[in-house]
Amino acid sequence: MSETPITGKVLVLYHSGTGHTAQMAKHVAEGVERYDGALMELRVRTVEEATAEDIFWCDGIACGTPTHLGGYSFEMKRFWDQNSDKIWSKTDGKIACAFSSSGGYGGGTETACLSMLIVLMNFGFLTFGVTDYVATKFTAHYGAITARAPRDEQEKDSCRRLGHRLCEWIAVYVLGRKDLHPLLTTKANEHQAEEAKQKKRAARKENFEKSRKEQQQEDSSN
After folding, report:
1. Which own/partner contact pairs does 130-136 have at CB distance under 8 Å and 24+ positions apart?
2. pLDDT band at 164, cuts 50/70/90?
3. To pair with 38 at 20 to 30 A between CA atoms, which of 6, 74, 104, 131?
4. Among the listed ranges 74-88, 124-138, 208-222, which one has the minimum average pLDDT value?
């Protein structure tokens, strides 16, 4: 019986024609690097650099592609086509997500993410979306998306959140760290935040009572 690994392995794989998707990949990688729940190793590869060995190596993958006619790019498709014989039936159970950049909002980024996820499902990857909102009316339900390069902080945060969530699922399902499930850590953070609020309210009340008593003493002495 094999031992449960203690370190997760994350691959950020992308194709970028203009550099926009490359910038997204950078921020996805930042989300991985900032994750502190469990140890994670990171590889960032373009489709031109990557090999089948990178796919075998990883526990989870974030695939980034420009949006081409509402789908993923030819270069990304070529990578999976050329490596399909090598990796077919050998990647089942790995975890995957997607991100995409288009020329403008409404240009098909979400359908590009979905088409990328369908390819990954064909290879047995377990795919996911993100329910969190990184800003008002801004989330990554099907993957992180941007119009051209990620310039706004919310666009960058969406990419980082995707990388972070990938690490969380690797921690839970590959490393067996159920205590790091995002719903549990979110509740724990909310509990800590509520405790901090209560302490602040108690401190303000204490300071108010102290000031009131001091004022009463000063008035009575006069």
Report:
1. 130/97, 130/161, 130/162, 130/165, 132/161, 132/165, 134/158, 134/161
2. very high
3. 131
4. 208-222
Residue 129 Cα distances to 15, 92, 143, 165, angstroms:
20, 18, 6, 9
Q: Cα–Cα distances in Å, from 182 out to 1, 12, 58, 171, 190?
A: 28, 21, 21, 10, 12
106 contact partners, CB below 8 Å, separation of at least 6 = none
Contact 55, 87 (CB under 8 A): yes
Confidence of residue 191 (pLDDT cuts 50, 70, 90): very low
CA distance 110 to 41: 28
Give the mean pLDDT of the chain: 89
String of b and e for 59-86 (b: at least 16 CB within 10 Å)? Answer: bbbbbbbbbbeebbbebbbebbeebeee
User: Cβ contacts of residue 21 below 8 Å, gap of 6+?
Assistant: 14, 15, 64, 65, 66, 99, 100, 101
pLDDT band at 193, cuts 50/70/90? Answer: very low
pLDDT at 220 over 60: yes
What does pTM read for this prediction? 0.82
> CB-side exposure of 154: number of CA atoms within 13 Å?
10
Residue pair 65/21 in contact by the 8 Å Cβ criterion = yes
